[in-house]
Amino acid sequence: MMAQYDINDIDNEVKTWFRGLNLLIPSLIKQMQTDTKKNRFDLVTNVDQTLESNFEGLIKDLYPDHKLYGEESHHDTTDLKQGYTWVMDPIDGTANLVKQQNDFCIILALFVDGTPTLSYIYDFPRQTLYHAKKGEGAFVNHKRLEQVQAQPLSELIVSFNNKVLNDATMHDLLDASFAYRLIGACGLDSIRVCTGQFGAHIHTNAKPWDIAAQFLFASELGLKMTDFNNKAIDFVRGGPFIISNPGCHDEVLNILLSNGGYHK
Ligand code: NAP
Ligand code: CA
Ligand code: CA
Questions:
Q1: Hey, what CATH class is 153-257 in?
Q2: Which ligand is nearest to the CA of 72?
Q3: Which of 72, 96, 163, 201 to mutate to test the pocket of ligand 1 (most atoms within 8 A of CB)?
Q4: What is the pTM of this model?
Q5: Which residues make Cβ contacts (< 8 Å) with residue 78, sequence separation at least 6?
Q6: CATH class of 7-144
Q7: CA 135 to CA 226: how far, in whole Å?
Q8: Mean pLDDT to the nearest integer, 78-101
Q9: For 185-203, how does the pLDDT look when each residue is reduced to its tens digit (9 = 90+)?
């Protein structure tokens, strides 16, 4: 029999863990070492690796039957939809961390039997914790986030990586929207949609850890989160991803799929 846990207790433990990072991350950044993975843009640091193994330590101590699916070292995908599964991007926006020491975050989410149950995006440089609990809403630090009001694309800012869309599609999006902005960290670009500051964030090839927390934020805040065919995304697989204001979702997808499609 699988152990049962109180979600509120887990939430409190994780928030305590996040508070502990306020001491840990500055010391890791002081001794920051950067390596490349697949190519010169694919960076990883001791900060990414230490945070993931530090969180793994917490899970092993408190919840030994929970599974961890993390970017840096935990890629076993068996049975992730059974029981308690944590998905983690220990540093999202590593290029921003290395080049700017700003605009990076930690993405963490708990799925229980495949259902998004707890979500966190920690904007470390701004010391701001976005969190959500299934059925109870989404919060920024202690303040509840309001449901996002539907607006048309012409009134909204869109965000996407400008290296990955074909030029015609990119220009159609720029023409149809109010403006374009990109932070360069999928978690933080997505959070701007959650707060109503951006209309949509698109990632054509999101990994599970880039979008793990966004499922619950989207459902608690009345946002749309789908693939580009308006279908649900499998949290174990990731793939094409849009999180958007409900008023512009269809319009953005229409643009992405017309004019030769979005592929470069
Ligand atoms: P970046 O500043 O390195 O990263 C921007 C965001 O994309 C971060 O959330 C980052 O997560 C994530 N990311 C980084 N490398 C990725 C990859 N190979 N595939 C998917 N997501 C990735 O972005 P960049 O310097 O503009 O680009 C770096 C590479 O990522 C390029 O090859 C770019 O084409 C690709 N990328 C693709 C998309 C897309 O929509 N297909 C979006 C962003 C980046 P971490 O910080 O955790 O790595
Ligand atoms: Ca990432
Ligand atoms: Ca990462």
A1: alpha beta
A2: 3
A3: 163
A4: 0.97
A5: none
A6: alpha beta
A7: 20
A8: 96
A9: 999 999 999 999 999 999 9
